[in-house]
């Protein structure tokens, strides 16, 4: 690809001029990145934006032969989704009419058309097909970068001055490029003990071992991270150097749903600073921070200040937008005075995954090298995607986009409530069983848990199992994201001890059997073993199996049907019938 068709220097949204500049982190670059030269065509870029310049240097097609004259779209209004939808659908009303409180169920929309040639004098910030469908700069359209810089500055508030952004094809693409930037073959990489499997798959070709770090209710444990890094001995690790990269999902952690707050991030940041570790912050669920689930008929246990903030979030306008931003967990960037944080963001969970569009925020040394990787990569954002998304953001503006995110958050909070309510209506629940022997070891210490028992009537009291029989599953209501992480009490199964005596892996055998029975009954969960980063410190252990349940796509009726089916399958599986 001839990427010479590129705009000049992009203007920068910057509200951080008084902050320190990033430290030099070029020693973290791998050898390939150090060898990678900037595009030899960059010398042309300085001149192409000069008014009156007749450009004959680039081998680029003429836009006249592009078959697309216009690109039109109808988009939802930025305030299309309500901020406080009702808990459950009203009977005899459609889902849409209930959700949007309108008898016609019509969603407010607006339309736009992107022409091949925009009227007026040439402006690099103008979105037009003659440039959007041309060979693109690795940095993307200038107007998109401007918007993202404003967003990062106002929402994440980085603690150093010269950070920048770079668009990509979503977080998986961004993480792959970060691996290509920093990882040498065989480097050990720090991860949470339960983590996103595709993130691990990305660095497996580099023969990189994972170093699982224990988790608690907020995610990664600072005590264990300090222990691993402080006691690292190369001769005991097969000659491997101490890890210099940490991959983490701080908000709505996948799969556990844990969310890391400010104090924990400060602790981990200081440890990474002490041992010179680059923090790779993967945040696809950041704006889906919804807070805790409140069971029906109970009051929230929020503090007075937290309740005031939650009430302010339900207001329209700038006050509600400000409350939404204030309620978000602070990004690692907010504590990063060095420039050692590389943050990955995506439009996949807040716009559309098919747009394949996201961005990285990092120090200028890393952004420059990542740009070089993008210049020679086949993975670059589509001109159609960037044109549509940028025009949408321009129409909404910053305040409108924040309002859109608030509506998306409220929608997923509603769906989370559906699933948790379905458990409450289907099972007998016992709350906060963390210190109870029933769930000890099933989830990290301090985790708020809910244990589910069968509602099937029992004829007599059992001294060991009580009136409700054995504990079947325990889950942690998520505070963000799209998932409920659930543990199965496999050790309560009648065949568990017999399988152990036969020398079999009783936990895996029984969880696999349960997963298959659920699939045969048309309910599909993600098995927990997909997410286990391995090592001796995995959550739970023998006698506990795990599933990840997504509440993002099923309807209200489907959610209840799935949980009721789960209950019936569990009763049969544990032979409670």
Automatic annotation (TrEMBL):
SUPFAM superfamilies: PLP-dependent transferases. Keywords: Aminotransferase, Pyridoxal phosphate, Transferase. One of its GO terms (biological process) is alpha-amino acid metabolic process. Residues 128-395 form the Aminotransferase class I/classII large domain. The keyword Transferase applies. GO terms for molecular function: pyridoxal phosphate binding; transaminase activity. Gene3D superfamilies: Type I PLP-dependent aspartate aminotransferase-like (Major domain) (3.40.640.10). CDD domains: AAT_like (cd00609). Its cofactor is pyridoxal 5'-phosphate. It holds the Pfam family Aminotran_1_2. The keyword Transferase applies. InterPro entries: Aminotransferase_I/II_large (IPR004839), Class-I_PLP-dep_aminotransf (IPR050859), PyrdxlP-dep_Trfase (IPR015424), PyrdxlP-dep_Trfase_major (IPR015421). Belongs to the class-I pyridoxal-phosphate-dependent aminotransferase family. This is Aromatic amino acid aminotransferase I. It comes from Kwoniella mangroviensis CBS 10435. The lineage of its organism: Eukaryota, Fungi, Dikarya, Basidiomycota, Agaricomycotina.
């Amino acid at each position: 690809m001839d990427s010479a068709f590129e705009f000049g220097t992009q203007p920068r949204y910057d509200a951080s001029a008084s902050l320190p500049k990033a430290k030099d982190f070029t020693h973290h670059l791998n050898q390939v990145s150090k060898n990678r030269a900037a595009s030899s065509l960059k010398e042309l870029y300085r001149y192409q934006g000069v008014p009156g310049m007749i450009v004959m240097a680039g081998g680029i097609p003429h836009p006249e032969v592009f078959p697309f004259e216009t690109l039109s779209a109808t988009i939802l209004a930025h305030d299309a989704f309500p901020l406080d939808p009702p808990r459950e659908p009203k009977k005899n009303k459609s889902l849409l009419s209930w959700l949007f409180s309108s008898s016609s169920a019509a969603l407010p929309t607006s339309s736009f058309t992107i022409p091949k040639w925009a009227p007026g004098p040439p402006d690099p910030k103008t979105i037009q097909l003659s440039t959007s469908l041309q060979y693109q700069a690795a940095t993307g359209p200038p107007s998109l970068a401007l918007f993202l810089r404003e967003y990062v500055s106002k929402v994440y508030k980085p603690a150093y001055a010269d950070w920048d952004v770079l668009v990509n094809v979503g977080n998986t693409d961004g993480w792959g490029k970060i691996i290509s930037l920093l990882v040498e073959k065989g480097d050990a990489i720090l991860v949470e003990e339960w983590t996103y499997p595709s993130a691990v798959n990305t660095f497996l070709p580099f023969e990189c071992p994972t170093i699982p770090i224990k988790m608690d209710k907020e995610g990664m444990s600072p005590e264990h991270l300090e222990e691993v890094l402080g006691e690292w001995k190369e001769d005991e690790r097969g000659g491997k150097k101490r890890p210099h990269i940490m991959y983490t999902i701080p908000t709505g952690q996948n799969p556990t749903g844990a969310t890391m707050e400010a104090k924990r991030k400060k602790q981990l940041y200081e440890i990474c600073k002490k041992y010179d570790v680059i923090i790779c912050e993967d945040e696809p669920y950041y704006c889906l921070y919804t807070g805790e689930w409140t069971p029906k008929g109970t009051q929230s246990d929020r503090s007075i200040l937290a309740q005031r903030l939650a009430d302010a979030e339900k207001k329209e306008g700038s006050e509600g937008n400000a409350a939404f931003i204030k309620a978000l967990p602070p990004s690692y960037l907010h504590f990063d005075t060095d420039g050692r944080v590389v943050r990955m963001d995506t439009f996949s969970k807040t716009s559309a995954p098919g747009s394949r569009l996201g961005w990285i925020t990092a120090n200028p040394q890393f952004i420059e090298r990542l740009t070089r990787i993008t210049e020679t990569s086949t993975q670059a954002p589509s001109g159609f995607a960037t044109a549509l998304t940028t025009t949408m953001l321009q129409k909404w503006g910053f305040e409108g986009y924040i309002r859109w995110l608030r509506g998306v958050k409220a929608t997923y909070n509603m769906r989370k409530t559906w699933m948790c309510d379905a458990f409450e209506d289907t099972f007998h629940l016992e709350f906060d069983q963390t210190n109870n022997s029933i769930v000890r070891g099933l989830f990290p210490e301090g985790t708020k848990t809910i244990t589910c028992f069968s509602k099937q009537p029992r004829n007599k009291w059992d001294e060991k199992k009580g009136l409700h029989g054995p504990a079947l599953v325990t889950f942690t209501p998520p505070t963000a994201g799209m998932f409920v992480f659930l543990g199965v009490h496999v050790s309560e199964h009648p065949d568990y001890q017999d399988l152990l005596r036969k020398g079999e892996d009783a936990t895996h055998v029984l969880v696999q059997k349960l997963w298959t029975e659920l699939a045969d009954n048309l309910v599909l969960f993600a098995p927990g073993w997909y997410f286990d980063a391995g090592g001796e410190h995995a959550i739970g252990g023998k006698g506990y199996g795990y599933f990840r349940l997504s509440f993002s796509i099923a309807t209200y009726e489907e959610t209840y049907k799935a949980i009721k089916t789960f209950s019936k399958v569990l009763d049969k599986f544990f032979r409670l019938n």
